[in-house]
Amino acid sequence: MPATKHTAVKPIAKPAMSHTASAEADLALLTATPAATPAAVPAASSTGTGVVSKQVFLRKFVENALRQVKEGSIDEYRKLVQVFAFSRHASPNAAAAEAKYAESVVPWISALSENVSVLDITYRELVQTVLGSDWVVVADDRLVHRYTTLVLQIISAHPEWVPQAMHAMARWFSFGARGRDAAEAGRVHGRVHVLVQEIYRAIPTCGSSLVAALSDAWPFKAAKTNMQVLFVRNALKIIEYAAGVRREVLRLVLNHVIQIDVEVQIELEDLESDSEQGEDGGVFELDEELASGNASNDNSSAVDDSGSDDSDSDDSDSDSIASGMGRARFNAKKTVGRLDALLSTLLAWLEQQCQPDPHTGELPEAASRLFLLFLDLFGAIVLPTFKSRYTQFVVFYFCAKHPEYSDVFLGTMVGNIGEPVRSAAQDRASSMAKVAAAAYLSSFVARAKFVAGSIVRNVVGVLVQWANAYLDWVEEQASHSDSAQKKMRARTYSQALGGAGAQTAPVAQLQVEMERHAVFFAVTQAVLYMFCFRWRDLAQTQDGGAVVESELDDLRWCAELDGLQRVVFSRLNPLRACAPAVAQQFASVASQTNFMFCYAVLQQNRRSNIGDAAGAPGAKAGLPIQSIAAAGSAEQQMLQARLDSFFPFDPMALPVSRQFIDSIYLEWQEVGDAVSDEESDGAGDEGTPEDEAGMVDQIVGMSISPITPLSAFPGHSYGSQL
After folding, report:
1. Rounded distance, CA 631 to CA 643, Å?
2. Contact at 8 Å (CB) between 231 and 174?
3. Three-state secondary structure call for residue 52
4. Residue 539 bridge partners (DSSP)
5. CA 538, CA 528: separation in Å to the nearest integer?
6. Given CA atoms 302, 304, 306, 312 in this order, what sign does their dihedral have?
């Protein structure tokens, strides 16, 4: 039979269309007649009607396109790349575009799956397009399953593509932040987690790539709150199936939260300073028009009045300053809300991880491992951060889940304080960490409702022994010189009360002592602070019964307090170095409970401060004695600042997060009877009503920054008060 003569097909002018549609059209044209098949593509098997199988042809086309790249021809390769390119934003009708993409790309996935073994670095553009496609949003589950399989095949054959795959997946963890349907966002996140989990299971060494991808994709601090919450929630989800990256992912989460926490404190301090200098109301008393962002009227009026007199110019400047402060307050308010959302997300996740066994009631072993990990990260991230205000409540909440957690935390803080006898060089090198540990220890014991009285007594006993051992060491060091021995010998009670021989260190000496004995002062302040809150756990009636608030004249104090009087009245005079609110409140509570009477020491310190400050550097600037005493060096200033105001578990003011804390938090409780007139008379100037007024408020609200008013939080009126 003579050979059949085929007529050449003339090129057909095609209208403009998408790359994917163009490639499909080209293939449809190629498969329309055998004469149009490229010579480079081997003849495919035909059916009885002579039509080439489309799936076979696609596979051959892919093989040919990949081979031609190495031969220097990329035309067919470009078409192949464009087949997999898909962006959900490319078409105004997203649903139609997704359906069309799913229908067209599925056969190409099968064809490319048979060639994954050759997809090395030469085909970077193709692999990156496959990984970067928006396939996860397509509603077609069949496409998602096949696409997931394709990605896993590529990763398994070529692990060098793992970093690109992780980066491509991490960008989806904030999907849904722009108001997408919650169900759709959950579906997309679930698909991403399935793929990431499968990659992690296939290549356990991919943890570093996963962490790097999360770090690179992490939203900025100024990003929308819901975007940050979604990302943090998905990052925490990874921990549940990728144990190898648990530490690094939690480090990323805590670092992000604490950065916003510190930013909040700085903003609030700046606003408080501006508010004190101006004539505004409270820090967050923001008018409704400014809160809604309508500040353009002020600007326009300033332009219209540009030719007015000086008086109008001054008014315009004042309006501009007020407007700027208002915007700053509004921004600070948003930052506070963002911190609350992130912290409550982390606390809610912890609640899920600490669910007890329904049969035994015991916490799972994984919860204990997680606690130890959080404690380790706490020491590395939170403890050294001076401006942290709320992040530490994560550990506070975790400790409430089991008594052993509290014991471990307290033991860790005691260990961080260290031994009382160390060389001066070692003390200077680690004073900041030790002072912080003492502050966390005391604030935790004072505020944790779940800490039993026996634990309170043990902690107080350990710190009192520490302080006495330190005094022994100081006196031993002074014994090498007769003159030094006289100076360092403990004062008698009459001297402490201002009698003959009573002396206090001048400011210059206090600067040196503040740095040298900073840890001693911090430990002493910790004991005084705990006493103010937990004195009921340190006392009992003479017959061994519970303390009755109305009968405080004849209490019996626990043995762990033995030696505290020596510490308070020692030559180092810790009441002068402690935060004034703590010293004053301790004197008040100790006096009302007949434990100790030290108002006279405070009075003597005040008289000495007034005399010393008159000629001290900074006196003309009106600085308080603590600021003057700490002016010697940056470290002295930081040490004094921590003593003055660092009580890390002061009241939680974030409205959502505090719901996790309120039930386990111990609020301030007044002593049963007010201080008597006789005791007030014995206190001299220190016992005046003006000084006593607000002292409880100071110790209740003492923190590294003012307690944030409730008006600072979303959902509350601007004029409300905490």
Report:
1. 15
2. yes
3. strand
4. 557
5. 12
6. negative
Instruction: Determine phi and psi for 541, rounding to 5 degrees.
Output: -75, 170
Structure tokens at 327: 């915007």
Q: Which of the 8 DSSP states describes residue 91?
A: S
CA distance 365 to 717: 44
Alpha-helical (H) ranges within 354-389 are 365-377
Distance CA 188, CA 512 (A): 61
What pLDDT score does 55 carry? 82
* Contact predicate 214/170, CB 8 Å: yes
Termini Cα distance of the chain: 100
The pLDDT of residue 512: 62
8 Å CB contact between 140 and 102 = yes
Nearest to 664 by CA among 297, 374, 395: 395
Q: Residues with Cβ < 8 Å from 208, sequence gap 6 or more?
A: none
DSSP state of 307: T
User: What distance in Å separates the CA atoms of residue 715 and residue 631, rounded to the nearest whole number?
Assistant: 43
Which stretches in the chain have pLDDT values below 50?
1-51, 278-314, 317, 321, 423-425, 429, 485, 492-494, 497-503, 615-632, 673-693, 695-722
| Residue 37 vs residues 40, 338, 656: alpha-carbon distances, Å | 8, 61, 67
Angle at 196 between CA 195 and CA 200, to 5 degrees: 120
The amino acid occupying position 124 is R
* Integer angstrom CA distances of residue 610 from 457, 628, 629: 37, 12, 12
CA pair distance 586, 49, nearest whole angstrom: 100
**3-state class (DSSP) for residue 190:** helix
Say what the pLDDT of residue 311 is.
43
Residues of 592-606 as b/e, b for ≥16 C-beta within 10 angstroms? Answer: bbebbebbbbbbbbb
* CA distance readout (Å), 102 to 16, 43, 86, 500, 687: 21, 28, 10, 94, 81
d(CA 81, CA 646): 59
State the Cα–Cα distance between residues 147 and 130, nearest whole angstrom.
9
Q: Which of 708, 710, 677, 712 is nearest to 692 (CA)?
A: 677
DSSP state of 87: -
Are the C-beta atoms of 566 and 621 separated by less than 8 Å?
Answer: no
The tens digit of pLDDT for each residue in 336-392 reads 999 999 999 999 999 999 999 888 889 999 999 999 999 999 999 999 988 889 999
Secondary element (H or E) of residue 556: strand 555-557
Residues 6+ apart with CB under 8 A from 96: none
3-class state of residue 665 by DSSP: strand
| Residues 260/335, Cβ–Cβ less than 8 Å | yes
The residues, ordered by sequence, that sit 6+ positions from 371 with a Cβ below 8 Å of its Cβ are 398, 401, 402, 405, 408
| Parallel, antiparallel or unpaired: strands 539-541 and 555-557 | antiparallel
DSSP string for 410-436:
HHHHHHHH--S---HHHHHHHHHHHHH
Report how far residue 410's alpha carbon sits from residue 395's, in angstroms, rounded to the nearest whole number: 11
Are 332 and 267 a contacting pair, CB within 8 Å?
A: yes
- State the residue for tokens 């399935």: 194
At 93 the pLDDT is 79
Tokens representing residue 563 in the block: 């030696």
Q: For residues 707 and 688, give the distance between their C-alpha atoms in angstroms, rounded to a whole number.
A: 26
The three-class DSSP label of residue 555 is strand
pLDDT score at 679: 40
What is the reported pTM? 0.76
